[in-house]
Structure prediction request, 608 residues.
Amino acid sequence: MCGIIAAATDRSVGKLLVQGLHKMEYRGYDSAGIALHQEDGVAHLRTLGKVNLLEERMIQEKPKGKVGIAHTRWATHGEPSESNAHPHSSKNRVFIVHNGIIENYLALKAALSKKGYLFQSQTDSELIAHLIDSFLNDGKSMIEGMQALKTSLEGAYAIAAIDKEDSNYFYLARNKSPLLLGLGKDEYFAASDPLAIGELTNQFIFLEDGDTAAVSASGLEIFDENQKAVERNVTKIDISAETTSKGNYKHFMEKEIYEQPQAIRNTLDGRIGGEDVLENIFGEGSSKLLAEVKRIQIVAAGTSLHAGRVAANWFSAISQVPTQIDFASEYTYKNPYIDENTLLVTISQSGETADTLTSLRHAKNQSYLGSLTICNVPTSSIARESDFLLLTNAGPEIGVASTKAFTTQLVALMMLAMSIAKAKNVNPKLRTRIVTALRALPEIVEESLKLKKEIQEISPKIAEKDNALFLGRGMFYPIAKEGALKLKEISYIHAEAYPAGELKHGPLALIDENMPVVALAPESELAEKLISNLEEVKARSGTLYVFGDASSNMQIDSGKLMTMPKCDFLLTPILYTIPLQILSYEVALIRGTDIDQPRNLAKSVTVE
Ligand code: F6R
Prediction:
């Protein structure tokens, strides 16, 4: 989704800003732009398409400056186009970049039009430049103008702005959209994503809602929502170039799939010991709180929601606690009934998903026992605003399609199920069994990655189809859903998932030789029933690609049975995710899609 970077330095700023934009490409975007102070005014360049095109324009036009702002846009209001790209300007004096959504933009646009401002774009962002210009005309300074924005703007915003008449500074304002400062030596940066400036500094300040800032190469001033000058804590975060580069892999997604054994080790590290999960791994006081939990409410989106659906089975079987699950985009607006001692659990890779964040903020005013999050980004809003937190420690996930974040979320959720059981003193033997199985998991996952060759054999057959069906029963239904989501988002093949037993209640009508069926058939009490469901597919000339274990005695005439390594049944959903990720990757590779940045998608979805 949209990305902001700004810098005030004593060196040439153009290249530095473009490098920052490249670092944010993974978020998904459709256009890019830059505005920087030059000796004779402001250089303002925007391009539709990739950051490389902006870079080419800069090589031709050679803008020179030391202070500037830049942006990658992911269209919300108005089509992807050069005129809708940021920065937007007001009378070539004030230039702004904006992340978020201005909810009252139509009313503000009408009021500014009445004042004579002309609009060049269809966006909700351009009015911010005009609004600041109108404040300057009223006699306000630039920082006062930034502060006055909050009296007019409704919605979420992170804004960076420059004023042509004030060439040493850039200015910031934040409300409900991430924005942080980076401190260098005689230079300062700002960005919506720490990865954008992670190679320039490891010292960050996270702005809070209502904050504004005035930044030059010689210093910065931060003001809180009451316009009072404030000091904010400096946080040290090391972002190595290695974690944000592809290494020898073709795509970030490929790298992230093969990193999973290590990512899982990192999630487990320091959280299990001896024969059980350790105390208070979700933060000080968490074990005491978990002892009181009577019900769990999970709120998440997309892949993270699938992790929650698997975990609901674990909360029931291991912790003896019932679970309710909701799409984050629906939860806040359904007027939820909250039972006594219900724990709110949010799950989010990015920690910035607006739907999930809105749910968390809404829940803060409800009668929950507390809020707990499973998150991969320690500095994110969800991580900071939750009462309790377990970081998945998967390392930055750059590919838009979530892979290692999902499997590590599952590991974290399993540890939550065990922590609740431990706090309530239930299922001690089962916990010991799971700890042993968790320790062995990274190696078994490593083993499952070796299925790549067999998956490469079947991938061309799926790549030539327009549809696919994924089947799983019980805990494997959410895994089938995750497999279908991965396939559709990166290869653009329409894919659906069903609990295998539902096939005969409708979707069987779709089965013919053009509908490949991918099935998950681990050994379980449902195995026989699943095999009967798969017979129904065979009888209708369907092609079956089955991932099963050595015990799956299936005869497949059309398709293939691929044998998975064995692991404790409760952990098999984690294991069976791996071949589905590889399958979607290999199919997308054949179809030649933009795997790391699939069309229309964004990594961190910061709008509702
Ligand atoms: C799919 C995917 C998305 C995200 C969803 C929530 O591969 O990555 O479905 O899972 O947008 O994002 P987070 O987990 O950052 O809240």
